[in-house]
Design a protein that fits this description.
Number of helices: 6
Number of domains: 5
CATH topology of the largest domain: Immunoglobulin-like
Distance between the termini: 18 Å
Low-confidence stretches: 1-20, 23-46, 442-451
CATH class of the largest domain: Mainly Beta
Helix content: 10-25%
Shape: globular
Largest sheet: 6 strands, mixed
Length: 451
């Protein structure tokens, strides 16, 4: 069994698990010897709270004769076991085969081959967004409570239900608006498929057509229109026209689609939206970024009916620009998204910036048992990791599930990315080649803490 590294998981084993509280602000590791006398491994606490508690408790400790050597472990225990990052979890049922679950906000991927509960290893804080998608090669899977924001506690009500894809969908009318792709033949150069908005009578029909659902309900005036691509230009030298007023309600990213929910006034003319991306990417090799701007043209519409609609833009041109610029087949780009029309032209108020992380990998992905790693970094399929029988820098390995390990000698390396209970111990490898965290049995007499 793999235990969570949150404090709540420790208390749950004692039968008194508190509701995990989200911490606002940065997190710092505390596994250095001087700050971590209890040798708590792979834990993180909020630095600002740690420093504040030390400062407030120091005078009291001096008055009662308690040394800092004793005070620091007490503060660590309070923070590690009393306050933790928030976790995202849920249950999946009806699985027949392999179910892939991905949080589009973090890029983390889980794979399940049987019904049961799941939990993402990422630490979330208050205000963080999550957006889950579930895919199966031979089933239709629905995600309930799969998107939103964290407030002050764990999210544990995600429900994923899978069922065999029917040979014929029901006639129930529960419309969804989706993006349907149509392959086209390019004579001279490679090109991306055409994408159109289309209303399907229900989600089953959309899934059967391999269409990407973007919202519930009919597509409305978008019906049959082509989904526009992001336009890549050089911001430094290209003049953009003034954007008409628009309110951005929400921005989300699903696979290669950037989706906006916007509101504006009109009703008498056709309104046009254009998404621009900068060909000059920012950042460095460790963290690339790009400026993205949404422009609105009302075509002189003087009507004042309040309109709210969803817009989708394909990011494939941005991906192609990135791959060409850096001569790579994979990458991660932080999109800094603004809408110039969201504030009046004469206003000095700053534009609201929406951040979405766009990840792609067009390299050939290795399946279970295939070779990975090496100097060129051969990747594994999403949800798999490159495992090695012994750690050698830039050495080749084999694609395996995340909790696979070869032996006790390699368990520390193979299982390093997994979460475990915040008690000193070590990873071992079971007879079934699965990672198992073995807590130390020796008791430290000075602090009365199992290690």
């Amino acid at each position: 069994m793999i235990y969570s590294n949150s404090g709540a998981a420790f208390f749950s084993r004692l039968g008194a698990a508190p509701k995990s509280r989200c911490i606002v602000g940065g997190w710092v590791p505390v596994n250095s010897a001087q700050n971590n006398p209890l040798r708590l491994t792979r834990e993180k606490i909020p630095l600002i709270l740690y420093e504040a508690m030390i400062a407030n408790l120091s005078p009291l400790a001096e008055r009662v004769g308690v040394s800092m050597k004793v005070l620091k472990p007490v503060v660590l225990l309070i923070l590690v076991f009393g306050l933790s990052a928030c976790k995202l979890s849920g249950t999946a049922s009806g699985i027949d085969g392999v179910l892939t679950i991905q949080d589009n906000e973090t890029g983390e991927v889980l794979k399940l081959d049987q019904d049961g509960s799941f939990e993402f290893s990422n630490d979330y804080k208050a205000g963080d967004k999550y957006s889950l998608v579930a895919q199966s090669d031979n089933q239709f899977c629905r995600v309930g409570h799969g998107s939103g924001r964290f407030s002050s506690s764990d999210i544990d009500n995600v429900r994923i239900t899978c069922e065999d894809e029917p040979t014929a969908c029901t006639a129930i009318f529960d419309p969804v608006c989706a993006i349907e792709s149509t392959d086209i033949v390019c004579v001279t150069t490679p090109c991306n498929p055409l994408h159109n908005y289309k209303t399907f009578s229900n989600a089953c029909m959309a899934s059967a057509a391999s269409a990407q659902i973007i919202h519930d309900g009919e597509c409305g005036d978008k019906e049959g229109q082509s989904v526009r691509d992001i336009s890549m230009i050089r911001f430094a030298t290209t003049l953009r026209v003034q954007s008409d007023p628009v309110t951005v309600n929400e921005v989300s990213l699903i696979n290669d689609w950037l989706i906006f929910n916007v509101s504006y006034s009109g009703g008498c003319e056709s309104h046009e939206f254009t998404l621009y991306g900068d060909t000059d990417f920012g950042g460095d090799e460790s963290a690339r970024s790009d400026q993205v701007e949404l422009f609105h043209s009302s075509n002189g519409d003087l009507c004042e009916r309040a309109i709210t609609r969803a817009l989708a833009f394909s990011l494939l041109p941005l991906k192609d620009e990135f791959k060409t610029s850096f001569e790579v087949e994979f990458g991660t780009v932080l999109l800094n998204i603004t809408a110039p029309g969201s504030i009046p032209p004469d206003s000095r108020a700053p534009l609201t910036t929406y951040e979405e992380t766009y990840r792609f990998d067009d390299r050939n992905q290795g399946s279970i048992g295939t070779q990975c790693g090496g100097l060129i970094g051969l990747p594994c399929e999403a949800g798999l990791e490159c495992k090695t029988e012994e750690f050698v820098a830039d050495g080749f390995g084999v694609c395996q599930v995340q909790d696979y390990c070869f032996s006790d000698d390699t368990a520390g390396f193979d299982c390093r990315n997994l979460i475990h209970i915040a008690i000193p111990g070590q990873w071992t490898c079971s007879v079934a080649n699965q990672c198992f965290y073995q807590a130390d049995s020796e008791v430290d007499s000075e602090v009365g803490f199992t290690r």
